[in-house]
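USER: Write out one fold?

ASSISTANT:
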Amino acid sequence: MRRRIWTFRFVILALALTAPAVASAMTVVPIADDDLTLSVRVIIEGRVEKMESRLNPSRLAVVTFVTVRVDRVLKGPLEPGVIVLRQMGGRTDDHATEISGAPRFEPGQLVVLFLNTDHDGALRVAHVSLGHYRVEIDPATGRRLVVRAADVAALESVAAKSRVTDIGYEDEFLVAVESTLATRRDEADAYASRVADVPMRTIPPDYLPGPNRGDGASPAFTYLQPGFRWFEPDAGGSIPYRLNGRFAPTPTRGLDEAKSAIATWSTVSGSRFVASYAGSSSGGGLRPNGLNEIAFGDPLGEIDDPVNCSGIVATSGVTATSARSTVINGQRFVGITEADVVVNNGFDCVLSDPILLAEVLTHEFGHTLALGHSSERTTEPSAKLRDATMYFIAHNDGRRSSIRIDDSEAVRLLYPADLSSKPLSLLSGTLPDARPGIPYAVDLRAEDGLTPRVWEMVAGSLPDGVRLTQDGRIGGTTSSVGTFAFTVRLEDARGAEIDRAFALRVSNEPAPFLLRAAYKSASQKLQITGVHLSPSAQVIVNGVTVDGTAVRYSASKGRLTLRGSQAALGLVANRPNTIEVSIDGQRSNAVSF
């Protein structure tokens, strides 16, 4: 069985609080060497000669042409000589297109490249940048190394018998590639036949050889220094995002997860950044079209398909222009004009979990704000940086779309606003009972303070199978029975703390628990919503049991309804009324309205 290890990978420059800059990243499930070998059209060894970035009017984006002198062909119908790759992204004097995880080339760089083709036959690095290896010399042995062109540590294999090479000796690596091609020739031929109708061009059809052209082209994939940002929030504007969720694998077609990610980054106290959900879209992709979009299913076919549930899960990109710029804390920023998130097709194996998808979208959405990674070290010593949602490795800890302290500090730096806020307040008191063997989920509530807020358990224990997440959800399934006492600490981004003791009772006969109550004067109905309710409930209003009035119960809504005038139900106008419920001798908590 494949063990899925996935990471937000491939960033060159992380966001430093003293020197803001955009960073590039994508979400991947590491692809095994043999799967990479069999899922590409061409494998070559050579040297990068030059890069030319140009604004492509038909694509409305900057593309970079990379000239490579091929010394050796391991796979594909090429001969040694010169080829030109076309890679999305790059910068000119006035425009920039930043694609998450795009390959970073340098003149003179020795490379081993795994290549595929665009629809028009232009060659490009396969799986965004997973197919890009630099060739370097091991100073300890003098042997040549292949180093995956990303600033990350080697990751554990995705399968017990599969190998993922982020760094290794070149001769051993290429022998393994040739062995895979020889022993699995049928699979290699099958892939070649599937793409045989797509032409293969050693020179892209839109490439014009000669000196750098356009409006002052410069080497590809360097940052338009010092960074990017949106300007609309400075004047109180909101950044609209649309969603193409046609191929999303969750019950809401990605809508709940996308809205949650947008809302998370838009409600950071002390930050002016605000984005909004602007409705559905039938498009999307990394080519600018005037819309900010989150799209599932790789609608433009820009990402290679996954192989055995590995490869590129999601990526993002921004387009910027120097026509707008500003200075914040002494640093110059240019204006983002469009941002897009693209989720690859074929990853239901990973993203059908709405909790996991929410974390992926929140991370990728953070990159469209021009935020980098909190850290790129697998052994990061700082718990604060490790815990950030913008850390380069996904946590998969049930956090959903929540962000952490370091994330909020970064967005406040790029989009500063007044940091004033009301004092932190913890609203939750008693907890509803849990039933053994039945899933339990309760969100603790707080308000004010400086967001984001973080919850942790500082004393006591929860029943086996139930845990508290840092965004305040108590959830899980337990077979234990009893009452479990514990203390929770709530901390906001300013460092204010509140401790509160709770007790969670697990019982086969749970007590009723009320969430809210309201009286509708027009229809003369008292409606009470809660859990563990039943038609036999006795309703207590302001300390007095309501008699002579039928109680209707809706199990699907978890609601009790009583009809009658305020006087008949014991309600008092123009002052708070307290509601309780009693079932089989067990009395609920009280709610007021």
